[in-house]
Amino acid sequence: MSQASPQESSFVVVNDRAALDALIARSHREPVILFKHSLTCPISAYAYRQLKQMGAEVALVVVQQARDVSRAVETVTGIRHESPQAIILRNGQPAWSASHYEITAAAVTQAARVNE
User: Fold this and answer.
1) Residue 3 lies in a domain
2) What's the pLDDT at 4?
3) pLDDT at 6
4) Is 84 within 8 Å of 50 (Cβ atoms)?
5) Which of 14, 29, 36, 113 could make a disulfide contact with 85, Cβ separation 3.0–4.6 Å?
6) DSSP assignment of 50-108
7) Is residue 22 part of a domain?
8) What total of structural domains would you count in the chain?
9) Strands 32-37 and 93-99
10) Spatial contact of 9 and 58, defined as CB atoms under 8 Å apart
11) Strands 10-13 and 32-37: what pairing?
12) Pairing relation of β-strands 57-62 and 10-13?
């Protein structure tokens, strides 16, 4: 898991299949945090704020802007689409996932460490 500043995460927008494939490849070297975010959902805004506190790099799929990527995440991982949704990829596979209020900075950080 790449570390950003100790105070705020850096969000890297994933808006095409090539970027998603690059993340999957990177997950063979380190855990990748993928966050499916809805711009119109208050629960998703809460989850975004939680992830922002982590101080890690977070791959961001904005579902309204990248529906094809959002669907591809479901196909590749086998995890049914929800929004908001956080998935940790490890070795090209989902190692952990959560949705809605289960997405907290502590839970995602712990899951990323456990799966290292």
Assistant:
1) no
2) 46
3) 55
4) no
5) 36
6) HHHTT-BEEEEEETTT-HHHHHHHHHHH-PPP-SSEEEEEETTEEEEEEEGGG--HHHH
7) yes
8) 1
9) unpaired
10) yes
11) unpaired
12) parallel
**CB 2: neighbour CB atoms within 10 A?**
13
Residue type, 53: Q
The CATH number of the domain where 97 resides is what? Answer: 3.40.30.10
Token pair belonging to 1: 């898991």
Predicted model pTM: 0.90
Residue 98 pLDDT: 98
Tell me if 84 sits within 8 A of 43, measured CB to CB.
yes
Residue 55 counted as domain residue: yes
What range defines the domain where residue 51 resides?
10-114
pLDDT for 5: 44
Q: In which residue are the tokens 């991982």 written?
A: 77
pLDDT of the residue at 39: 97
Taking the chain (116 residues) in runs of 10, the rounded mean pLDDT of each run is 62 97 97 97 97 94 96 96 96 97 96 74
